[in-house]
Specification:
- This protein has 154 residues and is an all-alpha fold.
- Helix content is 84%, strand content 0%.
Length: 154
């Protein structure tokens, strides 16, 4: 087996050509890792960071757009409600006027019928009163004939 070369007396390390070779290897490893490892990973991280920033920005912009759409939807709903309310009120007033017309026509008809019935009853009442007066006159003359002697005239 080969034995390592012994350092001269009083020297801790034997610095010969090994130190510059090791330094060169470290520099080559550093350049290799920088070119093939850290740069692609850094590029991926930068792209991901840019993507996240864009998405976050679009979410912030989207919230203002969402607020605008919400306001527009509320305005449309308010307009639709007022339009429906106006239509309902118009139909209500139209139906109420129709009902009032029908009610007034029916009321006038009932009033005419009641007036004609009252007039007929008054006419019948007058006729009955006249016949009652005639019957009362007849009965009173009959009573007077029976009560009074024949020679007395009233």
């Amino acid at each position: 087996m080969a034995m390592p070369a012994a350092a001269e007396a009083g020297k801790l390390f034997d610095f010969n050509l090994t130190l510059p070779i090791m330094a060169g290897e470290i520099l080559l490893l550093m350049v290799f890792l920088e070119k093939f490892w850290f740069t692609p990973v850094g590029k991926v991280l930068d792209e991901r960071d840019a993507l996240l920033r864009n998405q976050l920005g679009s979410v912030k912009d989207g919230s203002s757009e969402l607020a605008a759409l919400t306001a527009e939807a509320e305005k449309l709903i308010k307009d639709a409600r007022s339009e429906v309310s106006a239509m309902v009120n118009a139909k209500k007033s139209e139906k109420q006027s129709e009902l009032d017309k029908v009610y007034n026509d029916a009321k006038m008809k009932v009033n005419r019928e009641a007036e004609s019935a009252i007039a007929a009853m008054e006419k019948e009442s007058e006729g009955l009163l006249k016949s009652l007066d005639a019957q009362a006159e007849k009965i009173s003359s009959e009573v007077l004939k029976r009560v009074l002697p024949e020679g007395v005239k009233v």
